[in-house]
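Technical annex B. To support the medicinal chemistry partners, we prepared a structural model of the target in complex with acetoacetyl-coenzyme A, based solely on the information shown next.
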Amino acid sequence: MAIKKIGVLGCGLMGAGIAQVCAQAGFATTVREIEQKFLDKGFGFIEKTLRRAVEKEKITPAQQREAMGRLRGTIKLEDLSGCDLIIEAVVENLEIKNEAFAALDKMCPAHTILASNTSSLTIMAMAAATKRPDRFCGLHFFNPVPVMALVEVIKTIATSQKTIDACWKFCKQLSKTPILAKDTSGFIVNRLLIPLLLDAVRVLEQGLASAEDIDQGMKLGLNHPMGPLTLLDFVGLDTTYNIANIMFNEFREQRFAPPPLLTKMILAGYYGRKSGKGFYDYSGEEPVPTDLGI
Ligand code: CAA
């Protein structure tokens, strides 16, 4: 059965981005949030991104209108029951995710594929909450979703090849490049990225280099678009901390353990760009390194 109608659970940064690219690719897309105010915020973000794309002449005003016309917001979970593919992008909390997946499993027709955009939880831990583990997989997008070309498609030991084939085709319809990953915490990219980000914090914490030099080093030395500390501010220190803890609990390897400086920054509310301060302070015109007493 062809994938035509998409459901997205959550309209935060990732959910809104996923919904946007689905609508732009021509899919009728319904996004569900728990409260109207979160939907309004997410839709505001999508409108702003599409408006900017029109201003830059990347898309036409008609394409902008058509994409917005394909998007629908709801606070009722049952409004997703007619979807062929539902992608979950809510907080990294297994209980919250599984409550939604168990309910969706009961209300959706047999052909509906359920997918999670989790960055670190294992997919099987969610598939087990449903009676359709063969039609359950991971679809891991990257931030900012409209810009980043990659989607990790995660196959559990129970996912059918038919499900993977359908999701692979769907990713290509979004003009994304899918890669196949096994169902292990962090999959491919975060397995490599999280230790790198945590090591950058360790280098700073140990006073080996300044935040600016660490970032310049990785930008100019490896052609990364952002240095690791800037990327941490971009992804969110809290998000990275949660991913690292989940991976540490899974593997018990020191390289996934959040360094004390990261923990302290989270306690201080330094979450990165979203809170106005992380490794850099964003309150002025240009970001400046935060004084972390190192
Ligand atoms: N939404 C939509 N479009 C955006 C955007 C956003 N949030 N941010 C930037 N863009 C677009 C801009 O409009 C611009 O588009 P055009 O080229 O069509 O004009 C393009 O991206 C480049 O943006 P800018 O010129 O403003 O800035 P830049 O060149 O510095 O690029 C960036 C910004 C794309 C974010 C770039 O710095 C980058 O690629 N950074 C690394 C991002 C990254 O590593 N993401 C992965 C994070 S890890 C993750 O997501 C996985 C996880 O599980 C934690």
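Notes passed to the chemistry partners:
The radius of gyration is 19 Å.
The beta strands are 5-9, 28-32, 71-74, 85-88, 113-116, 136-141, 150-155, 177-182, 280-281, 288-289.
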